[in-house]
Structure formats: structure tokens, C-alpha cells
Amino acid sequence: MKATFMYGAGDVRVETVPDPILKETTDAIVRVVRACVCGSDLHPYHSMPHSESGNPMGHELIGVVEEIGSAVSTLRKGDFVVAPFAFSDNTCSFCRDGFQTACIHGGWYGNPENGGLQAELARIPQADGSLVVVPGIDESSELLPSLLSLSDVYLTGYHAAHMARVEPGKTVTVIGDGAVGLSAVLAAQQLGAEQIILMGRHRSRTDLGREFGATDVVAERGAGGIAQVLELTRGEGSHIVLEAVGLMPAYEQSFGIVRPGGVISRVGVPQYEDAPIGFGSLFGKNATLTGGPAPVRAYLEAAIQQVLNGEINPGRVFDRTVTIDQVPEAYAAMDAREALKVQIAL
Amino acid sequence: MKATFMYGAGDVRVETVPDPILKETTDAIVRVVRACVCGSDLHPYHSMPHSESGNPMGHELIGVVEEIGSAVSTLRKGDFVVAPFAFSDNTCSFCRDGFQTACIHGGWYGNPENGGLQAELARIPQADGSLVVVPGIDESSELLPSLLSLSDVYLTGYHAAHMARVEPGKTVTVIGDGAVGLSAVLAAQQLGAEQIILMGRHRSRTDLGREFGATDVVAERGAGGIAQVLELTRGEGSHIVLEAVGLMPAYEQSFGIVRPGGVISRVGVPQYEDAPIGFGSLFGKNATLTGGPAPVRAYLEAAIQQVLNGEINPGRVFDRTVTIDQVPEAYAAMDAREALKVQIAL
């Protein structure tokens, strides 16, 4: 099969490798129908040291079950499935809490052990726990982009809003106009936010943000951006800040605009470890900090229904489609911000 | 009147100064019946640079209203009142949210502008918003220590538990066996926590913690303490951590023991600004960080009723009583850990 590997910063290659095989009785093999490139894939695209062996890439897919291990009981060959970006048994204590990204039998794709999902075939560990069947869908459906978005991007935005307990009457500010930020706007709108301020500078993206529900757009960053959000909130600040970037300036922006007693919810993977949380940032105004890797699995059934019912169309974040051979171009286009998010049609 | 001033580290003096007078029409003058020394008063006791003029000390009191400004409508001379450690109008947008420590007309005691409450008399700004009347109490009541504890210490512990949403079925670990930590144990018990692990090394204090509801006591700190809490929680960690210390090792302990998806709630004033919050500490396990200066005012009516009904006896944290002239000895005794918390009877 063809699969995507990264050999270092800026060096993405599609290569022919042996097809994956079942390793555990709980595995399934899925033929990939759509995969995509994630904003988080751009971090190693900027900084990965050269590797002789290359690292398999990709953690998002929808596809069709080709083969199941002997212990898999809820799936059949031919099922159309969504795979969350992390696998999980969906039965352990943490999974039952709704935090499947902390599953004791769970793990991540995009490493030599589990392979990557920007490929023609994928081995999915803990298949019963991880894969969710989409009924009545075939490969020609117009819903494929939205279903693909449930593998990570939309439900990562949703996780930010869920952890922050967005509800009617709340002002929500979303930092970042990437695909996750726009997804967070849509999720905040779905949860009934009264005012949704989108902080972003790319007009085509913030325009989609407005269609997703943003009531205000603030292009400025730093002190000027903070001042504008305060002005839009009667000087009081935003009840909720959804931080979808992961860089320190976005975090600093967050505690600058959060209202006393408010919530900052992060889903951009932090590219820092230490940050201000003392009296002058979080503590003094009783701000809450939450968020983390989205337990997509917890939200997947409900979101699939919303897509099938036409209630949400989160797949609009995909603005380009490539073949598997064109994946290196997809990385380059997203890195150059020529594309918001690129799907791979197989 | 006599009032307490700090002139530098270790240098506390009780001096005779002019009685406070009404400055604003919204002020009240209160004759202090009981005041006390706070754990947070020990921070300047360790580190305050020498001051020629001295700094007024104290932010906790119960007392009797002596005089009211012309705009005060809910209080009368002779009312027995509890004063929260911060004053607030209790009507602004943040107060209505339940975060009176962020009141736009609020502020703090223990500074030249507002004076200190370790004194015979006190000027209370925003008296209508700040002071809560205790019905049917006189100065001989045995409930005075518990009522005094509602000015700060018990309701600070309660705030930690409230912000962390302690509820039946949850495991709660309290870090710190000072008066706030023990109060947090009592609050967690009141809110129905299933298991309450108290981390502290002072036997007389942890014994009171057990009486307040702690089911387990862990004396060890650092990696050993973390291992013990994990063992007590089937290796899963604590749903909720209430951090009542404010020093970095206590925070590091917190993210070491919190369960994935769990909550760390801080009420010990952080003696640091930057701290770990990235993938390796909070983000990776979707831990939530919350807490801040307790909006005591939000919880005061309900807690007064609990004290009057005999449901709670949080005043047990006071293990010594001094006169106003003995306040310097109170600081020394708390600093030497000879006393847990000292009340001043006037």
C-alpha cells in the first residue's frame, strides 16, 4: 500500500510499504476512504530532525472495515466507520469518565508501532472501542468531509466548548482561525453561546467563522486585540475563551480577555510547558484553565447523527482535496496557508 | 484604638492610633468582637522589607455595627455581623456571578487606605454589600469561633471544594494541613465526597482533619506522597485535588496525583507566577485548574445558617485565643507551628 512518511522538517514522502496486518485479536484493518492533514502535523513539518527511517504520518480517517480480529464483536467487513484520532478500549475507568484519550489500553497513531492514517490501509487497535459505524453511507456521499471532520478537527473544537461548559447566555471568544478554531466556533454556536468573538486575521477563514456562528471578528493581536475584546464585552471580558492555537502568545491573550470567574479551554497542543498561572494571570480573577487532547470517541455517536441529519456541516473546513500521491503538496499548501485543511481522497 | 501593624519581617506591633471614621456614605464602623491571624499574614512575616510607617494587618472579623454612613440601608447600630475578608458592593456584574472578590467597587484590607482588621475598630467600605447580619447572637455565644471562621478560612476551604464541584462519589485529596486545608476537608465532607485523603505531616492537625471527614492521611511528600495517593485510588489518581498551600511543591504534587479529567482547585495564594501547564502536567491528561481568592460573600448566608443550626463547627481550627496586646505572640506561635490558628478576643 501507499503510506505517508516524514523524514524531517519539510520532507514528506509517499512510499509503497507492506500492507498492515492484524497484530492483536482486538485489531481491525480499515481501507481508508478519506484521510487528512492536521494542523498538529505542521509542528514536525517545521522542526523534525532528519530521520533515516522516516515517521509514519496521519491520525484521521473514515473508511471501510476490511478485516477484523477474532475478538472484535461489534464490527463486520464492509462497515463504514469513523476512527477517532486516538484509539481506546472505551470500557476502562477513564473511558467511562468520558476521557478516552487517557484510556489504559489506548494510544496514538503516527508512530512506528501503530503506523499513520495518511495511507491506503490502516491497522486500528482496540477496534470495538475505537471505531464507530456510520449507517447508510457509501463512498459517494456528500457527507464524507463532515464525517471525516469528526475524526479530529470538529470534535476537538467541540471538546474545547464542552470542557468550558458553553451554554446559552455566555460570551465565547475563540482564539485562532485555523480549522480547529473555526470548529470551536461552530461547536459554541451549537451549544447556544450568545456572543461568539473570533480572533483571527485571515479574511477567508473568518468569513467561514461568521457562517459557523461568529458574531464578531477581531483581527488584531496582543494588547490591541485584548482591548477590542474587552470593548466588545462591556469592559468585563469573555466568560469563556477557547484557545485553538497552542502557542504562548495565544495563552497570554487568553488570560488577558477572560472575565473574572471565567474559563480558558485549550485544545491547541501547547508548544510550551511553563506559563503564568499565579495571582497576576489566572488566580487573582478566579479563572479556570481546562482542556486537553479531545476524547473524540465520547462525542462521536451524537455528532454522527447531527451530520446525518444535516444539523451541522463541519466538513466545510476542508477547502482542498488531493490524492495520496499529492500528500506532500497538501502539507506545503497548509504550511503556506494556501489551504485551510486538506483532505486526501483514496 | 489599638491596632496591629507590621514593620518588617518578624516585627509586629500593636499601637494606639486614632479611631477610624466614616469616609464614604456607604461605610460602616464595626467594633471588633473577634479577629484572627491568617496563614497568608505569615508571608510578609517572613519576607516584608523594613517599613518606617508600618502596614496595618488583618482581614478577618466578627463584630457589632457601631455607626453607619448615610447611604447604608440594610444595617443598624448594634447588628452582629460577619465581614468577608474582601469588601464588595454585592450588586455589580461580577458579584452577581458569585465572584465578589472581583467586585468593581471592591477591595482588600491590610493596607493604609482601608486599614487592618486586627484592631479594636474597623471601617468597612461597601457595608451593605459586605456585612452579613447574624441574627440572635451575642458576644457570649459559643459559636463565635465558627462565625469568625466564615470571614475567611472555612469559606476559603469551601471555595476550593465548590470550584472543583465536589459531589458524592468523588475522591478528594487535600494538600496542606493548615487551617485552610482542614477547612477544605470539612467542606468536601459537607459536599458529599466519598473518599477524602489529607496530605499533611502534623499529627494534631491531621487528627482534626479526620474528625472533619478525612478518610485517609498521607504524611509523605514528593514522589513518595504521590505514590501513596495513587495506591489509595487504585492507581487512577484523585478526581479532585484541593491545594491549600500556595507553594510550588504543593502544585507539583497536585498534577502528580490528579486523575485524567480531574480538577485541581487552588486556594493557597500562589507564591509563584510561572508553573508547568503543558502536555506533561495538565494538558495531556485533560486536568482542569481552578480556584482563586474566595468570594466568601457568596457563601456567607448559607454557612451562617449551618453554624447556627450546629451542622458544622469550623471554628475548631482555632486552638489559641489572645488579647489584642498579645497579637505579636499570636504571629510567633503560628509561625513556629505551636498554634494552628489564633483568634483575638476583644
Provide the fold topology.
Two copies of one chain form a homodimer.
Chain A: E1 2-8, E2 11-16, E3 28-36, H1 42-47, E4 55-56, E5 61-68, E6 80-83, E7 86-87, H2 93-96, E8 107-108, E9 121-124, H3 127-130, E10 132-133, H4 144-149, H5 153-163, E11 171-175, H6 179-190, E12 195-199, H7 203-212, E13 216-218, H8 222-232, E14 238-243, H9 248-257, E15 258-266, E16 274-276, E17 288-291, H10 296-308, E18 320-322, H11 327-335, E19 342-345
Parallel strand pairs in A: 11-12, 11-14, 12-13, 14-15, 15-17, 18-19
Antiparallel strand pairs in A: 1-2, 1-4, 3-5, 3-9, 3-19, 5-6, 6-10, 7-8
What do you see in this structure?
Two copies of one chain form a homodimer. The first copy, chain A, has 346 residues and is of the alpha/beta class. Chain A folds into two domains: 2-152 and 295-345, Alpha-Beta Complex (Quinone Oxidoreductase, Chain A, domain 1), CATH 3.90.180; 156-291, NAD(P)-binding Rossmann-like Domain (Rossmann fold, 3-Layer(aba) Sandwich). Helix content of chain A is 28%, strand content 25%. Chain A has eleven helices and 19 strands. In chain A, strands 3, 5, 6, 9, 10, 18 and 19 form a seven-stranded mixed sheet that branches. A six-stranded parallel sheet of chain A has the order 13-12-11-14-15-17, with helices on both faces. In chain A, helix 7 (203-212) links the parallel strand 12 and strand 13 (216-218). In chain A, helix 5 (153-163) packs across helix 6 (179-190). The longest helix of chain A is centred in the C-terminal third of the chain and has 13 residues, at 296-308. The radius of gyration of chain A is 20 Å and the shape is globular. The A-B interface holds A 93-94, 97-99, 101-102, 163, 234, 236, 259-261, 266, 269-270, 272-293, 295 and B 93-94, 97-99, 101-102, 163, 234, 236, 259-261, 266, 269-270, 272-293, 295. Strand 16 of chain A pairs antiparallel with strand 16 (274-276) of chain B, so a sheet runs across the interface.
